[in-house]
């Protein structure tokens, strides 16, 4: 009897040990998928002379984002600066889990790039910082939080286009000549076509092209594939997607010819100058 009792106690200890071990594993939960980054965020930054200059992010479900800091006039009467140039960037985001993200961001017109960590906290604010301790291009090790902003994509693009134009002027004013697309923005290029070519934003061009083909449709995304771009509405079907290419100061795009009923029948070629397309 005594041996059986001891055996029973021994088995009980083993079972309890297994239960405790299993509970311990449960406390270390695997990371959930997290939520996709979507919509707009805003922060109120301050320039060197104390002028308030907001910055904005706009994230898309397709894993891309745009970033901009619109130009502002200096509010400091003692400042030597009349205004502060804008800034425009684009990039991609990737979910790591538990609402943590990896961001890769590139300046629109120069070679600066950033590898960033981002996180959404319990209040829904977005915090962003450099991934590396000593990055080649420093975004900021402690930039605070970006607040969720109620803003449509169209409203954001108005700010982005303003910031983009200011960013280009700022680069030209400081003599920087190498754009991230490899084109030259030298002062000798004074024609309007050269200006549009060097500062052409595929997103803006794609939307303008789509407006020509489908005036009543809303653009959902502009994606790059090799030397071509594809712009589509929310359905992303073959007959609602337009392929286009940017060649210098001109844009070539393809549509479905009249009477062609094939799904991929975008075989009618069109060419238009960027200046006329964008109203330049």
Description of the molecule:
A hairpin with a 2-residue loop joins strand 11 and strand 12 (about 230). About 25% of the residues lie in helices and about 35% in strands. The model is unreliable at about 1-30 and about 175-200 (pLDDT under 50). An eight-stranded antiparallel beta barrel has the order 1-2-3-6-7-8-9-10. Strands 11-12-13-14-15 form a five-stranded antiparallel beta sheet. A two-stranded antiparallel ribbon has the order 4-5. The chain is globular and about 60 Å long. About 25% of the residues are buried. It is α+β, with helices and mostly antiparallel strands and about 280 residues long.
How many distinct helices?
Answer: 5
Strand order of the largest sheet: 1-2-3-6-7-8-9-10
Ranges where pLDDT stays below 50 over 5 or more residues in a row are: 1-31, 177-198
Mass-distribution shape: globular
Order of helices and strands: HEEEEEEEEEEHHHEEEEEH
Q: Please bin the fraction of helical residues.
A: 25-40%
Q: What is the number of strand segments?
A: 15
Mean of pLDDT:
74
Termini Cα gap = 99 Å
Structural class: alpha+beta
Largest sheet: 8 strands, antiparallel, barrel
What is the CA-atom radius of gyration, in angstroms?
26 Å
Which percent range describes the beta-strand content?
25-35%
């Amino acid at each position: 009897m005594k041996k059986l009792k001891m055996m029973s106690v021994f088995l009980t200890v083993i079972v309890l040990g297994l239960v405790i071990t299993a509970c311990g594993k449960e406390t270390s939960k695997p990371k959930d998928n997290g939520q996709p980054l979507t919509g707009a965020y805003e922060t109120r930054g301050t320039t060197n002379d104390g002028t308030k200059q907001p910055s904005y992010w706009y994230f898309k479900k397709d894993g891309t984002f745009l970033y901009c800091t619109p130009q502002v006039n200096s509010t400091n009467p003692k400042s030597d600066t009349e205004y502060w140039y804008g800034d425009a960037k684009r990039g991609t985001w990737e979910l790591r889990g538990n609402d943590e993200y990896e961001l890769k961001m590139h300046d629109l017109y120069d070679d600066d790039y950033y590898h960033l960590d981002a996180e959404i906290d319990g209040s829904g604010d977005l915090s962003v910082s450099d991934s590396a301790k000593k990055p080649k291009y420093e975004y900021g090790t402690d930039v605070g939080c970006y607040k969720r902003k109620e803003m449509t994509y169209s409203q954001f693009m108005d700010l982005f286009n303003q910031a983009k134009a200011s960013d280009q002027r700022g680069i030209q004013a400081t003599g920087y000549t190498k754009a991230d697309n490899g084109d030259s923005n030298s002062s000798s290029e004074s024609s309007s076509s050269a200006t549009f070519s060097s500062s052409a934003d595929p997103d803006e061009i794609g939307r303008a092209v789509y407006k020509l083909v489908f005036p009543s449709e809303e653009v959902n995304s502009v994606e790059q594939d090799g030397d071509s771009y594809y712009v589509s509405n929310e359905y992303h079907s073959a007959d609602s997607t337009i392929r286009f290419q940017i060649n210098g100061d001109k844009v070539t795009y393809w549509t479905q010819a009249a009477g062609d009923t094939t799904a991929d029948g975008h075989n009618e070629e069109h060419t238009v100058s960027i200046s006329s397309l964008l109203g330049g």
